[in-house]
Amino acid sequence: MRHIYECSVRFDDLDAFGHVNNVTFAEYLQEARVDFAHRQLAGTGSSPHEGSVVVHQSIDYLAPVPFRTEPLQVEVWVTRVGTTSFEVAYEVKDDTTLYARATGVLVAFDVRANTPRPVSPPEREILERFLEPQP
């Protein structure tokens, strides 16, 4: 199963060539990841100081995105769940074009202790619902 986030293209997302800037794609991924966390992982019993941090991210840019009024779809899914980390994959697309693929590694993190923590059983249960092999 994939989490789908609809992301608007804002005028200031564009570069001098009139396309969405490459750095902005990282922002789109972040918005989708945060939306996934708030909609799917909220209510897992984690304390407010617990969450996850991104330790790696890779983006393959497949096609330029010009300014558009229709939102892009950013799909997020989980490709691996470990003891303290999990991996995610993303696709940025619309009905006809795949603009980017990306992957990321996140580590469950305790902000107060400033250290990784185990993925909790409730978090693992939800993450595994979104588990798909990497294409």
Automatic annotation (TrEMBL):
<dbReference type="Pfam" id="PF13279">
    <property type="entry name" value="4HBT_2"/>
</dbReference>
<dbReference type="InterPro" id="IPR050563">
    <property type="entry name" value="4-hydroxybenzoyl-CoA_TE"/>
</dbReference>
<dbReference type="GO" id="GO:0047617">
    <property type="term" value="F:fatty acyl-CoA hydrolase activity"/>
</dbReference>
<protein>
    <submittedName>
        <fullName>Acyl-CoA thioester hydrolase</fullName>
        <ecNumber>3.1.2.-</ecNumber>
    </submittedName>
</protein>
<dbReference type="InterPro" id="IPR029069">
    <property type="entry name" value="HotDog_dom_sf"/>
</dbReference>
<keyword id="KW-0378">Hydrolase</keyword>
